[in-house]
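Data card: per-record layout.
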Amino acid sequence: MGLFSFLQKKKDLPPKPAFVEKRLLPRWKIAAPAKIKWHGSKDYLTCEVRDLNMKGFSLAMTEKIPEVNARVELYFNEKHFFDIEISVTWHREVKAKQIYGIRFSKIRYSDKEKIYQMMKENFSGCFERFL
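The structure for this 131-residue chain is written out next.
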């Protein structure tokens, strides 16, 4: 530790660990095509739900979300329909795609049951890892 020790080459930092899930309730990685419609809108927008749990989901789409807090209708495979209230917790843009972290503001117990059944029917490989 001399007067000019700050000029010495620094030791390489250890590599960063892989992504570590910090959520108490991990999300299921599903990457499923979906459609979303804001309350009062006539048209559905195509999107992709990348991951999902009972508290929220990650959404990727080409358009920007018009409202940070909103009531929406979400469709999966023309079979599973959810009427929910959401709030956007984070947003980033990657290669002209808008990626959002969405939290359920209000979700009915019946919709939670439908999410559970949908995961069991369509995404059993992802679903059973967390049981």
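Known properties of this structure: The CA atoms of residues 86 and 112 lie 14 Å apart. The longest strand covers residues 80-94.

See the next section for split statistics.
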